[in-house]
Amino acid sequence: MSLDQMTGLDDEAIHRLAERVETAQRYAVPIHKLTDDYPGLTIAEAYRVQTALRRSYERRGQRVTGWKAGLTSKPKMAQMGVSTPGVGFLTDAMECAANARIPLAGLIHPRVEAEIAFVTKAELAGHVTRDQVLAATDYVQPALEIIDSRFTGFKFDLPSVLADNSSSARYVPGGRMRRPDAIDLRTVGVVLEHNGEIAQIGAGAEVLGHPAEAIAMLVGVLAGMGEVLPAGSFVMAGAITAAVAVNPGDCITARFYEMGSITVSFTA
Ligand code: OOG
Ligand code: MG
User: Fold this and answer.
1) pTM
2) What is the pLDDT of residues 140-160, one digit of tens each?
3) Best mutation site among 76, 90, 144 for ligand 1, i.e. most ligand atoms within 8 A of its Cβ?
4) How much distance in Å is there from the Cα of 211 to the middle of ligand 2?
5) What's the mean pLDDT when you consider all of the chain?
6) Which of 69, 94, 109, 225 is most buried, by CB atoms within 10 Å?
7) Surrounding residues of ion ligand 2, Cβ less than 5 A
8) pLDDT at 120
9) Which whole number is the average pLDDT over 17-25?
10) Is there an atom of ligand 1 within 6 Å of 113 CB?
11) Does 160 contact ligand 1 (Cβ within 6 A)?
12) Atom from ligand 1 closest to the CA of residue 115
């Protein structure tokens, strides 16, 4: 056992891990999961790596636009073999327009997820309830997330995936914006189509019983990092169904009950 594993990781070790993840993200070259080398990596240390990654992106001129909750539904937990939700940050460089053609160059093994997104109008901090999340929400809307694990074979454990910014890669806001009190997010059905075939179906209640619960979870994780969720944040609640792998030439449409739809196609 290395000294690091007996004493926890110092800032230097955290930065080395963040650099390892950032290099894999930048060059789209997969690496083995971090816990292969650091079996004792804790959740707290993994979030320190994620924070170091976020600071590095900010130094390079990217702006944090919001956050994402991940692994918040049973279908996702079952697909990934991880049963604890987590969070990741989103930047302006990750945002793509609905109906756009999205290049897959720069991604290793992308997968698409259908999610409900919240746009906030008031700061959320500390321990908050589902109702407080809804009261601080300006509107909700559909979103697609394109995730891309930097780990070989898309295989990881919880500390590794959190350090890899929860596989964040691209996100696509779209569909219809709805007031949070105008719609019951638990019963919003979603149909995810891949090249015209129905690939996945689900409903909002898959996400921790109510997607707003995922935002409350996320705000709690942020509090643990000493952060708050500012007003004006774009926050995704996590995939409702399992994710769908995509290749150049593919087309994805997600249809949300009473919230419109989002279509994107993928190029090389
Ligand atoms: C981790 C990220 C999961 C979601 O919506 O559940 C996620 C992964 O599955 O790679 O973004
Ligand atoms: Mg997601």
Assistant:
1) 0.97
2) 999 999 999 999 999 999 999
3) 76
4) 12
5) 97
6) 69
7) 70, 113, 145, 239
8) 98
9) 98
10) yes
11) no
12) 5
Question: If you average pLDDT over residues 7-13, what whole number do you get?
Answer: 92
- Ligand 1 centre distance from Cα of residue 6 (Å): 30
d(CA 186, CA 206): 8
Q: Is the pLDDT of residue 3 over 90?
A: no
Per-residue pLDDT of 99-133, as tens digits, reads 999 999 999 999 999 999 999 999 999 999 999 99
Nearest C-alpha to atom 10 of ligand 1 is from which residue? 167
User: All domains of the chain, ordered by start, with CATH?
Assistant: 11-267 (3.90.850.10)
Number of Cβ within 10 Å of residue 100's Cβ equals 13
Interval 229-255 mean pLDDT: 98
